[in-house]
Design goal:
Strand order of the largest sheet of chain A: 1-4-8-5-11-12-13-14
Oligomer: homodimer
Largest sheet of chain A: 8 strands, mixed
CATH superfamily of the largest domain in chain A: Alpha/Beta hydrolase fold, catalytic domain
Number of strands of chain A: 14
CATH architecture of the largest domain in chain A: 3-Layer(aba) Sandwich
CATH topology of the largest domain in chain A: Rossmann fold
Radius of gyration of chain A: 20 Å
Largest interface: A-B, 48 and 48 residues
Helix content of chain A: 25-40%
Strand content of chain A: 15-25%
Order of helices and strands of chain A: EEEEEEEEEEHEHEHHHHHHEHEHH
Shape of chain A: globular
Number of domains of chain A: 2
């Protein structure tokens, strides 16, 4: 059923912050066909939690996380483009990460996994592209954390990344996002079942994960949307436990948490979350502006959402401006979507045409 | 050292949602002198956590939570006004609440304390005012949760509350605020030390309280302020524990949490937090507008802050509009303070003159 392919490193993978490990593999999925000139490839890098399964295909007809964006005749048109989506290094959806088995011990790496950076995730994604024999991408698309990874890749492989789409992302983690993610990590670490990362596979730190996920969902959407969708609507039968849920917004958060907490490895979550906090383009050349100068972006589409509290519009403007100063032709869109950071996952009416137009206008 | 006075109910206190208990007392503090006409009294109702000690006095020279706002020659001028600040019923700063001893058992009430509503807090505050022989307040001032309580009091005792100051408050809890507070409560309830509310006095659910408080502080301020104050500044020595704090924003949150978690009773926090979720003016007459019609507010000052994510500006506008429709003369200020919901506690340059002007303009 799975449409995943794997690239296996035959050399140890060297992490930017130190540490090398053997046996690293990267999971990816593809749609469409690479043309003879090998110049119609589009790489999608993901946010923190999605897998490489962005959309359905003949091999895996299940719906993907960007289903309406990607496919034949869709905004990212797989009749025309060869599309690759990579599962981030450090994740638990096929690529090697803290939940993978450490060969020497036969147990999960857990906190013995090397410190992970966004730059490592970019290096791992690039290995897939090189393996496919692609020297230059038609476009590189990164929403959320994927936009951080895309910028790291455009820095590491400038010649391969002339056309860049950054969606609700950031040139560096800011204080509010760091605060939020540090709280999510604290919730997991404070769960007695976490046990310093060596949790029993039958007893995950689910209470901590539940809190972390709910806190995430709170910042992925917007107060305005929830006022419209839920207001003060109550659930039909108040949960009997003391201080149990009474309002629909509470059961909405609970439903989101329940879908997530059994399926995403807690240590992987911690590693990817911390990698985002560490991300700072200014580490490459001293300033954000200097980092953009080291890329070779010719055209860029930067999309932000007015109601995004996690990756605020000011950061989208900062990316657009940095790329402009580095001589890219930049289209900047500030969308009035009400769904906050998650708008790119749901507001296809606004995001779809913008992406299609940009991709089709590239030479 | 304490300047607290107490009002002791000689009858059982009847809670609006059901339940009556004996021996209820309400702690309060006063500044200045009541005049012969008994018409120069100003009542301040507090947010969730502050005590009645709003400012220093001869009896208690320690700094209060609204120190720069209140005192001789200050915006709320105690040379002119007789100022009363009441500790909320349900709190743990002198008034009866879930942390108080249940006479029948000799143990804390904990979850056996009756369900608490904002209306109950208003009823208890009113008992203090009546006890002081005051029939009509010169002004009633409520920031944050105190603004909810002030509106409940203006509904219950309309003749006593002709002049109202609402600061960063709301006519009802909205979905985002409910979501946030439900997460804070979940963090406390998920702490194994909480034990269904019957925690050992030597083993409070501090990990849960720490998360709850940090989450609060995150929404009391604004991302813009933190970008300015902290940006990506690191702490001097990274905490050695896995995933320990690295950024100044993290140690800022930790310092705030440490000041709070040993001094505020967890069950009191849960009760007051839930009371805010339940608050809805529309419970009084079917709509918010109908509730304002039942008050007898002649003049009102409504102040909101553009960066407040917890009590957003739209809710301040809603209160101002509701009061206007009920024939009050309303002054509405939308302040550009960068400190979010907490601005009234720190941005005295903006809040002070606005309050002084309003109070001095009242007949």
């Amino acid at each position: 059923m799975s449409a995943l392919d794997y690239f296996n490193f035959d050399q140890p993978f060297a992490f930017r912050r130190g540490g090398r490990i053997d046996g690293v593999r990267v999971a990816f999925e593809t749609w469409g066909a690479l043309n003879a000139q090998r110049d119609n490839a589009i790489l999608i890098l993901t946010g923190l939690s999605p897998s490489a399964h962005a959309a359905s295909s003949a091999r895996d007809p299940s719906l993907g996380w960007w289903q309406d964006m990607l496919g034949p005749g869709r905004p990212i048109d797989t009749d025309r483009w060869f599309v690759i989506c990579v599962n981030s290094l450090g994740s638990c959806k096929g690529s090697t990460g803290p939940a993978s088995i450490e060969p020497a011990t036969g147990k999960p790496w857990a906190l013995r996994f090397p410190e992970l950076s966004v730059e490592d995730i970019a290096d791992a994604a690039w290995a897939v592209i090189a393996h496919l024999g692609i020297a230059r991408l038609h476009a590189l698309i990164g929403p959320s954390m994927g936009g951080m990874t895309a910028q790291a890749l455009a820095l590491a492989q400038p010649a391969a990344c002339p056309n860049l789409v950054l969606i609700s992302s950031a040139p560096q983690a800011d204080a509010f996002a760091i605060a939020l993610r540090s709280l999510q990590r604290e919730a997991i670490r404070a769960d007695p079942n976490w046990r310093g990362g060596d949790y029993d596979s039958a007893h995950w730190p689910l209470a901590g994960m539940r809190l972390a996920r709910k806190l995430g969902v709170m910042t992925y959407r917007s107060p305005q949307e929830w006022t419209q969708r839920f207001g003060r609507a109550r659930i039909e039968s108040r949960i009997a436990s003391p201080f149990g849920a009474e309002y629909q917004i509470e059961s909405y958060l609970e439903a989101h948490a329940q879908r997530f907490i059994g399926s995403f490895d807690p240590n992987c979550y911690l590693y990817l979350s911390r990698a985002m906090d560490w991300f700072d383009l200014a580490d490459h050349g001293g300033t954000i502006e200097a980092a953009y100068q080291q890329m070779a972006v010719r055209r860029a589409l930067v999309i932000g959402v007015e109601t995004d509290m996690l990756f605020p519009l000011a950061q989208q403007e900062q990316m657009a401006e940095g790329l402009r100063l580095a001589n890219a032709a930049v289209e900047f869109l500030a969308l009035p979507s009400i769904q906050g950071h998650d708008a790119f996952l749901v507001d296809f009416r606004r995001f779809g045409p913008a992406l299609a137009r940009f991709l089709n206008s590239l030479r």
